[in-house]
Write a structure and sequence with these properties.
- This protein is α+β, with helices and mostly antiparallel strands and 313 residues long.
- It folds into three domains: 115 residues, Immunoglobulins (Immunoglobulin-like), CATH 2.60.40.10; 113 residues, endopeptidase fold (from Nostoc punctiforme) (Alpha-Beta Complex), CATH 3.90.1720; 47 residues, no CATH class.
- 21% of the residues lie in helices and 33% in strands.
- It is built from seven helices and 14 strands.
- The protein has a six-stranded antiparallel β-sheet. The chain has a five-stranded antiparallel β-sheet with strand order 1-14-13-10-11, with no helix packed on it. A three-stranded antiparallel β-sheet has the order 8-9-12, with no helix packed on it.
- The longest helix is centred in the C-terminal third of the chain and has 13 residues.
- The radius of gyration is 30 Å and the shape is elongated.
- The two termini are 20 Å apart.
- The relative contact order is 0.16.
Length: 313
């Protein structure tokens, strides 16, 4: 018995990275790279617990960026130097301000939803819902934008999807497609993971003018990850765009197979006759199968159509 696959998917478009025009220091680093590198060099230090603003100030000063006035707390820094309260397009190297207490909290954004900050010890970590729920804005320490600021969503944005997936007695598969809104991509990396097992079941690179791929798949839950790669940009600041979907096998429905036994025979004809005579009722799926002429009704026309079909067998 052949089967078909119905794919249920939710797409989640995420933004890719880009590099703006930059100024390079004598050692080859931008101010953004320098201040982030300095912050990371302090990871593990306990010296900045309750001194998050001091930590951020030292990061910026390591890149030669000095404030014209001091800020005694993160809230003071926020009031002096906030640029935007939007979470969209936060530049790497910016200061993130959070309303966690009357003094607030501040961190340096390092990209890919991560920040480096002083809390108990200096650490770099994913920004949790706890912090995003208390996010009040971003800006630059001292009001000075560092050179080499990276806006993560200025590069090509890729929108992946799963148009359809299916299987039969011989094999199974899914079509993964995507499109990009720009022309900065050199190639696309496509990976598919089985989210039930964590296994990477597919990984391949495609040219920049390719926007789809057919992949053999069995039943299960999957995540297709499409990454746009620009060879001119640092891969470490790229975002991976993903699409979660479930591949679920369902029995193929045969028009006229009212009793769902995989064949159309006299028993199905009898059931349609009983339905017309008001002796039995059909559920929605059975009604759809019994409507062999697809006119939205189950009546004598369907009975006669099925009868003629059986006579010809």
């Amino acid at each position: 018995m052949n089967k078909k696959i119905i794919a249920f998917m939710t797409a989640a478009a995420a933004m890719l990275s880009s590099v703006s025009a930059v100024q390079i220091s004598a050692d080859g680093s931008t101010q953004t790279e320098t201040l982030i590198s300095y912050g990371r060099s302090l990871i593990g230090s306990p010296d900045y617990n309750n001194y998050c603003q001091r930590f951020v100030r030292l990061c910026y000063e390591s890149a030669g960026l000095y404030a014209s006035k001091g800020a005694n707390s993160a809230i003071d820094a926020y009031n002096y130097w906030v640029v935007s309260d939007s979470r969209d397009n936060i530049p790497i190297g910016a200061c993130l301000y959070f309303n966690t207490s009357e003094y607030g909290h501040v961190a340096v954004y390092t990209g890919n939803n991560q920040m480096v900050h002083g809390v108990k010890i200096v650490r770099e970590e994913q920004i949790s819902d706890y912090y995003w729920d208390r996010f009040i804005g971003w800006g630059y320490q001292g009001g000075s934008e560092p050179s080499g600021i990276i806006y993560e969503n200025e590069n090509d944005t890729v929108y992946p999807s799963v148009p359809y997936a299916y299987t039969n007695a011989e094999n199974g598969g899914a079509d993964i497609s995507w499109y990009s809104d720009g022309d900065n991509t050199s190639h696309y990396d496509l990976s598919i993971y089985n989210t039930d097992t964590g296994e990477n079941v597919f990984s391949e690179a495609f040219s920049a003018d390719t926007y789809s791929a057919y992949v053999n798949l069995s039943e299960g839950n999957y995540c297709s990850v499409v990454k746009a790669v620009n060879d001119d940009y640092s891969d470490s600041i790229s975002y991976s765009n993903y699409c979660n979907f479930t591949v679920e096998a369902v029995q193929e429905q045969i028009a006229g197979d009212v009793n769902h036994n995989g064949t159309v025979d006299i028993a199905d004809l009898a059931m349609i006759g009983q339905y017309i005579s008001y002796n039995i009722e059909f559920d929605e799926d059975t009604f759809y199968i019994a409507d062999v002429n697809y006119d939205g009704e189950v009546n004598i026309l369907d009975f006669m159509t099925l009868k003629q079909y059986l006579v010809k067998l």
